[in-house]
Amino acid sequence: MKKILITGSNGLLGQKLIYALLKRNQENTIWDILATSRGENRMRTQAGYAYQPLDLTDALAVNACIETFRPDVVIHTAAMTNVDACELDPAACQLQNVTVVAHQLKALEKLKTTTYNPHFIHLSTDFVFDGENGPYRETDLPNPLSHYAQSKLDSEKLVLASSLRTAIARTIIVYGIVDGMSRSNLILWAKGALEKGQQINVVDDQFRAPTLAEDLAEGCLLIAEKNATGIFHLSGKETASILDWVYQVADFWKLDKSLITPAKSETIKQPARRPPRTGFIIDKAMHELGYAPHSFSEGLALLDRQLKQNS
């Protein structure tokens, strides 16, 4: 049985990873799972895996956790992902997005032997690119525009320089629902605002490929199961403007599109610069991993079913 450590297990991707691993373990137990996050475990299901509160900024705590558990695979999902908060507090951004990665790599490298070589899978972002020539392949050159983007690129460099087996999973606008919902995402924000009859301004000059959280979790587990190394782009298949995605949300839930006002990026005062056009070419992940993401409409239908079950 292989041991897998998930960081950020209270977050959207972290929870989807735990649920996907539990599903894999239903037929026969393949994975010994340790979930870690800040504070209490917020997942509804608390059986079938162990949970340990872990402050990744504490090098001693990270060392102790890794030495005790000795994971075969680490999937590092925890991060400071609020792009504007990162811009306003670059020191916190550096600590939570770069230093914590260094702590984990160091702890794992210390244990590495000829028979024990753990697999470290790191989550990154489309924001490492400047958005001038999207959609992007894994081989395209990054050019970050913000503190957040730079921190993710810096952490990628640490991962790629490590002596461990490593992989980087870059993704774009992850959407879905989690237990004990503490944060929203683009899709839920748009749906919620329109349901309340609120007027919303939505940018029409930023292009992205939103990613269903279940698809991203599956992509990460495929990397783990296939012992894949290197960089993989994991996102939805379709790239369109954020305005287009919000219109599709309104159409799906039959909400009032007249509440949506198109806006330009420069009119929405945001501290951090965003890349205008990202999106990914996901051929590598499809061919090497068997990654097969849902379409956006399929993702919304799945989300709708989950929201109904939860209510």
Helix share of residues? Answer: 40-55%
| SS element count, helices | 10
Structural class: alpha/beta
CATH class: Alpha Beta
List the domain count as a whole number.
1
Remind me, CATH topology?
Rossmann fold
What does this structure look like?
Helix 2 packs parallel to helix 4 (90-111), helix 4 (90-111) packs parallel to helix 5 (147-161) and helix 6 (186-195) packs across helix 8 (242-252). The longest helix is centred in the first third of the chain and has 22 residues, at 90-111. Strands 3-2-1-4-5-6-11 form a 7-stranded parallel sheet, sandwiched between helices. Strands 7-10 form a two-stranded parallel sheet. It has one domain (2-184, 210-238, 278-295): NAD(P)-binding Rossmann-like Domain (Rossmann fold, 3-Layer(aba) Sandwich). It is built from 10 helices and 13 strands. With 311 residues, the protein is α/β, with parallel strands linked by helices. The chain starts with a strand and ends with a helix.
Characteristics:
Rossmann fold; two-stranded parallel sheet; seven-stranded parallel β-sheet; 311 residues; alpha/beta
Q: What does the secondary structure layout of this molecule look like, with pairings?
A:
Layout: E1 2-7, H1 12-27, E2 31-37, E3 50-53, H2 59-69, E4 73-76, H3 83-88, H4 90-111, E5 119-125, H5 147-161, E6 165-171, E7 174-175, H6 186-195, E8 200-203, E9 207-208, E10 211-212, H7 213-225, E11 230-233, E12 240-241, H8 242-252, E13 260-263, H9 283-289, H10 296-310
Parallel strand pairs: 1-2, 1-4, 2-3, 4-5, 5-6, 6-11, 7-10, 8-13
Antiparallel strand pairs: 9-12
